[in-house]
Amino acid sequence: MPNWTLACATADIEPDDLIRFDHGSQTFVIIRSEDDTFHALDGICSHEHVHLCDGLVMEGQIECPKHSATFDYRSGEATRAPACVNLKTFPVRVQDGQVYIEI
């Protein structure tokens, strides 16, 4: 059975931006695309375990602030070295101005 967890309000994130969401021992990033869709993925870079919340969001990608590795935020795919391990993505549901992720 899905465990939907409230992550933030839609108003908390501007288009083409992200926020950090911590739940228990897990860190996530919640991204609002320029198309106004929401995405959730691991919040720690798979290359050197840096928080992605300080990274940049652009053209469907999130860029790590440390070594500029990039990931497709829709699929979690590592798209530029030095990262070579994909990030896990999580289902997102938006309801009544709130963003929920399935953990």
Automatic annotation (TrEMBL):
Keywords: 2Fe-2S, Iron, Iron-sulfur, Metal-binding
InterPro entries recorded: MocE_2FeS, Rieske_2Fe-2S, Rieske_2Fe-2S_sf
Gene3D superfamilies tied to this protein: Rieske [2Fe-2S] iron-sulphur domain (2.102.10.10)
PROSITE patterns: RIESKE
Any GO MF annotation of the entry: metal ion binding
Domain Rieske: start-end pairs: 5-101
Signal peptide: none
Cofactor: [2Fe-2S] cluster
A Pfam entry, by short name: Rieske
Domain of life: Bacteria
Protein family membership: Belongs to the bacterial ring-hydroxylating dioxygenase ferredoxin component family.
Protein name in UniProt: Rieske family ferredoxin
Species in which this protein is naturally found: Neogemmobacter tilapiae
